[in-house]
Amino acid sequence: MFMKSKRLLIIKILIIFILISFNFKNVAVSSDFSEQQTINITKNLRCLICQGQTIHESNSDFAESMKKYIKSELENGKTNEEIFSSLVKKYGQWIMYDPGISRNTLLLWTLPLLLFLIGGVIIAKKIFRKI
Amino acid sequence: MLSFFVFKFALEKEKIYSPKIIDNQIYTDFEVQDLIEGKRINLSKVLFGKNFYLINIWSSWCEPCKDESDKLLELKKNTSIMMIGINYKDKKINALNFLKLYGDPFDRVFIDKQGTISINFGAYGVPETFLINEDNKVLKKYIGPLNDEDVYEIKKITNN
């Protein structure tokens, strides 16, 4: 009788131990994930009070606050797109290192392609003229 | 000649980056902690009952904040404005001493220990001031300490 209850106690302790360690592992994985996500996001954000640094690279007060803000937003279930879009609303498109295609950035995206095409046409014309 | 005009334009250009705010609606649905009482409250419940709210982000370690304290005290006289202070990355004892020394212009002061509340407002650091209306729309944003012209402008807006 005593042996049986002792065995039961050991099993209970083991179950508790496994559950706790599983939970800790989950917390650690989720924390690592949001840490990595924060890095990915902050690498594409400009530190607006620094010279040519991303939020990820900067140690300024602004950048540190931004990192904490992004981490808490991720932990609250926000997606990368939602975070980027809310920051663009607050700080303007300038905060993005890789701005998406919009009316303001259309020329920025299409100009290299246009120049490439124009250059290609000029070269092609010269080649065909020679032939 | 061209480079002369380019340099002239560059030198005359405003150095403080102030973005065109796409959405000038301020987000207020988050909890803040009162500096004095320590109670937590949703900010949207605080921004109630006045026509205008002046949100000033400040800190005791911020030198320009000392310069603008008399400007804030002057604006406090305007009864249509609720003065709200956001105490940025500060120690409570230092913040309270600051208010004792330079005067307390605020109706409510909230703590921003991590600086994340300021990011929610779209701020860069301290000092920074937002004038918002009853619909939580940002009417004016002042980066850096308030000066006499800013005070005049705020008075003009809030007295209309």
Structure description:
The complex is a heterodimer of chains A (131) and B (160). By secondary structure, chain A is an all-alpha fold. Chain A has two domains: 2-100, Helicase, Ruva Protein, domain 3; 101-131. Chain A contains four helices and no strands. The termini of chain A are far apart. With 160 residues, chain B is of the alpha/beta class. Chain B has one domain (22-159): Glutaredoxin. In chain B, 36% of the residues lie in helices and 24% in strands. Chain B has six helices and seven strands. In chain B, strands 2-1-5-4-3-6-7 form a seven-stranded mixed sheet. The longest helix of chain B is centred in the middle third of the chain and has 14 residues, at 63-76. The radius of gyration of chain B is 17 Å and the shape is globular. The model of chain B has no long low-confidence stretch (mean pLDDT 90). At the A-B interface, helix 2 and helix 3 of A face helix 5 of B.
Give a brief outline of the structure.
The complex is a heterodimer of chains A (131) and B (160). Chain A is mostly helical. Chain A has four helices and no strands.
Search tags:
heterodimer, A: 131 residues, mainly alpha, Helicase, Ruva Protein, domain 3, 2 domains, B: 160 residues, Glutaredoxin, 6 helices, 36% helix
- Sheet bearing the most strands of chain B, described? 7 strands, mixed
Q: H/E series of chain B, N to C?
A: HEEHEHEHEHEEH
Strand order of the largest sheet of chain B: 2-1-5-4-3-6-7
Distance between the termini of chain A: 103 Å
User: How would you name the oligomeric state of the polypeptide chains in this document?
Assistant: heterodimer
Main sheet properties of chain A: none
Q: Helicity of chain A, in percent?
A: over 70%
- CATH homologous superfamily (4th level) name of chain B: Glutaredoxin
Overall structural domain count of chain A: 2
Please bin the fraction of helical residues of chain B: 25-40%
Question: What is the mean pLDDT of chain B?
Answer: 90
Radius of gyration of chain B, taken over Cα atoms and rounded to an integer in Å: 17 Å
